[in-house]
Write a structure and sequence with these properties.
Strand content: under 5%
Radius of gyration: 16 Å
Structural class: mainly alpha
Shape: elongated
Distance between the termini: 17 Å
Helix content: over 70%
Number of helices: 4
Oligomer: single chain
Length: 134
């Protein structure tokens, strides 16, 4: 098994938690996303730390075509975390004192943020999967 496939298989279980939760929340807006934002962001931090360590151990200073694809995946993962923080984290903090109309608007924004982040994470997973083939 090559080191690139080892890095994908090693990071896959760590990454599948945040991606799976985000995709599930994006598909069902009735789930209360505000209950999951803290664990999602914590898992995202763990994934970034794990990815940085894997990059250091398996890729080092080389930057070929595989690393370019992985870098695209990293950028989309950072974008997904930013979208979650801006479109889910901020509205979830404003839910406490919101009336019914405002709550509906905030939940719609949170659902849209989960959908955007889910698509970005799909791109991230695809980059991890195809990186060793380019």
């Amino acid at each position: 098994m090559s080191t690139s496939s080892l890095s994908v298989f090693t990071s896959w279980p760590v990454f599948s938690g945040p991606a799976g939760t985000t995709i599930t929340l994006a598909r069902d807006p009735d789930i209360r996303a505000e209950r999951f934002i803290q664990p999602q962001m914590g898992a995202a931090g763990l994934v970034f730390l794990t990815g940085a360590l894997l990059w250091y151990f398996f890729h080092g200073a080389s930057f070929g075509s595989m690393e370019m694809v992985l870098a695209l995946g990293i950028l989309t993962a950072f974008a997904a975390a930013g979208v979650l923080g801006a479109m889910v984290g901020a509205p979830s903090r404003r839910l406490a004192g919101a009336n019914a109309e405002t709550e509906t608007q905030l939940r719609a924004r949170m659902a849209a943020g989960e959908r955007i982040a889910a698509w970005l994470l799909v791109v991230t997973v695809l980059c991890m999967a195809i990186a060793r083939m380019v």
